[in-house]
Amino acid sequence: MNAALDPTTPRPAAPTTAWELLRADFPILDQRVHGHPLVYLDNAATSQKPRAVLEAIDRYYRSENANVHRGIHELSNRATAAYEGARARVARFLNARSAEEIVFTRGTTEAINLVAHAWGARVRSGDAILLTEMEHHSNLVPWQLLAQRTGANLRYLPVTGDDGGLEVDRLGQLLTPEVKLFAFTHISNTLGTVNPVAELCARARGLGVVTLVDAAQSAGHLELDVQQLGCDFLAFSSHKIGGPTGLGVLYGRRELLEAMPPWQGGGDMIANVEFYASRWNVIPHKFEAGTPHIAGAVGLHAAMDYLDRIGRQRIFQHDQELAARAYEQLAGLAGIRLLGPKTGRAGLVSFHFSDVHAHDVVTVADQFGVALRGGHHCNQPLMRKLGLESTARASFYFYNTAGEVDRLVEVLREIRRFFHVPL
Ligand code: C6P
C-alpha cells in the first residue's frame, strides 16, 4: 500500500496557512474515520459547524429559551429579540431593503415550495414557468406540481454539453409573454457552473417576468446583494453555510410578499381569527405559521457573523483555488470524465470513471477517511441529458486545504489500482 494511505500515517504537521488555522474552530474535523484522518469533501451536501455556532445554540437553550412573539415574560422577550435579531442579520447578509423581506423556512426546498404555492396562486392555465436544465429537484418538482395544479407549462433554458453553461442566447426565444416566472440556480451543485445572475434577472425584469434565485450553493461562498442582483426571490439553507439544519431563508421583494396569500395556516401568521374567517398578520409573519426554529435562527446568526469575519469573497477565491487544483490533477487520470466548466468553476468537482461506479468510488474513498458524495445529486434530468446516471463529487469549503485535495487524488489513484483500471 502507498505509504500515504496507511492508517497509521500521522496527521500533517502544524498548520501553516490562515485557512488551516481556521480548522481548529471545527471540532468535528479533528477525528479519524476508518483509522484515517477525516477529509471532509461533501460540503455541497452540508457544511460543518464552527464552535461559535455550537456555542450560540448552547447558550440560547441554557439562558434564553422560550416561545417567540407570544409571551410578555423576560425569557420570551429575549427569545423574540434573538429570533428577530437573526432576521435583521440575514437582511444585512443579503443587503435586503428591510428585515420584513426575510421569511424563515425549513430550508431552500421549503422556501421554493412557499413561492410555488403562495406566489403561484396567481398562475393560470397557459402561463409558463421558465427553469434551466441544471436545476436541483427542489427547484423543479415544486414547479411541476404548480403546473399540474394550474395547467401552466414548464420551459427549460438548455445547458451546453461542453462547458456546462447556460445557453443564454436562447432567452430571447424562451422569454415570451406567457412566462410569468424564471427560476434558476446561482451555482450548479453538480456542474460547479456559476450562472450570471444579475444578467439573467435583468433580462427577465425587462419583460416583467418575476425571478427566483436558488442560492443554496452560493450563499455561504459568495457575497450576495439582492438589490444588485435584481432578483425578486432568493432562497438558501442555513446548514450549507455553517449554520444548523432545519432552517432556511426566503428573501422576497416587499411588494410581492405583501400581495401573496399565506401558504400555511396556524399560530403567529394571523392578525385576527373568527370561527369562519381570519385576517393575516403582516409580512414576514404571514408566512411563518407555528413555532419557528428559534435556536436555528440563533445559530444561523452566529454562522453569518463567522463567515463575514473571514470574508465571503476570500472564501470564494479559496474554494475556486481548491477546485481548480482538483480539476487539474483529476484531468490527468485515464478514463475520467469531468463535468462542468474548465475554468471559473465554483468549489466543487463532479467526475465519472468509465469503469468504476460512482457508489464504489465513494464507498472505497470512505474507507480512506475521504467523504465524497456519489449519485445523481438530485439532478436526474441533467444527468440523463449528459448520458449519466451518477457521478462522484468532491465539494470544498474554506476549512479544506490543498493537502486534502492532493490526498483525494492519491486515494482516487489507489481506488483505480484496486479496481485494476490502468492509470
Ligand atoms: N443539494 C447536494 O448534495 P435543502 O435540502 O433544502 O437544504 O437544499 C436543496 C438544494 C437546492 N438547490 C441546490 C442547488 C442544492 O444543491 C440543494 C441541496 C445537496 O447537492 C443535497 S441534494
User: Which CATH class of the largest domain is shown?
Assistant: Alpha Beta
For the largest beta-sheet, the strand count, sense and barrel status come to: 7 strands, mixed
Tell me the name of the CATH homologous superfamily of the largest domain: Type I PLP-dependent aspartate aminotransferase-like (Major domain)
Physical arrangement of strands within the biggest beta sheet: 4-10-9-8-7-5-6
Structural class: alpha/beta
**Which ligands are bound?**
ligand C6P
Mean pLDDT: 95
Number of helical segments?
14
Proportion of beta-strand residues = 15-25%
Q: Name the assembly state.
A: single chain
CATH-defined architecture of the largest domain = 3-Layer(aba) Sandwich
Ends distance: 16 Å
Helix content: 25-40%
The low-confidence runs, each spanning 5 or more residues with pLDDT under 50, are: none
How many beta-strand elements?
A: 17
Give the overall form. Answer: globular
Gyration radius, in Å: 22 Å
Which key features would you list for this structure?
423 residues; alpha/beta; Aspartate Aminotransferase, domain 1; Aspartate Aminotransferase, domain 2; 2 domains; 17 strands
Give an account of the 3D structure.
The chain is an alpha/beta fold and 423 residues long. It has two domains: 3-46 and 311-418, Aspartate Aminotransferase, domain 1, CATH 3.90.1150; 53-309, Type I PLP-dependent aspartate aminotransferase-like (Major domain) (Aspartate Aminotransferase, domain 2, 3-Layer(aba) Sandwich), CATH 3.40.640.10. The chain contains 14 helices and 17 strands. The chain has helices at residues 18-22, 51-63, 74-94, 108-118, 141-150, 171-174, 197-205, 226-229, 254-259, 294-310, 312-331, 358-367, 380-385, 402-418, and strands at residues 32-33, 36-37, 39-40, 102-105, 128-132, 153-157, 179-185, 210-214, 233-237, 248-252, 270-273, 278-280, 336-338, 348-353, 370-371, 373-375, 391-395. Strands 4-10-9-8-7-5-6 form a seven-stranded mixed sheet, with helices on both faces. The protein has a four-stranded antiparallel sheet with strand order 13-14-17-16, with helices on one face. Helix 2 packs antiparallel against helix 10 (294-310), helix 4 packs parallel to helix 5 (141-150) and helix 11 (312-331) runs parallel beside helix 14 (402-418). The longest helix is centred in the first third of the chain and has 21 residues, at 74-94. The protein is globular, with a radius of gyration of 22 Å. Ligand C6P is lined by residues 44-45, 107-109, 136, 138-139, 185, 189, 214, 216-217, 237, 373, 377-378.
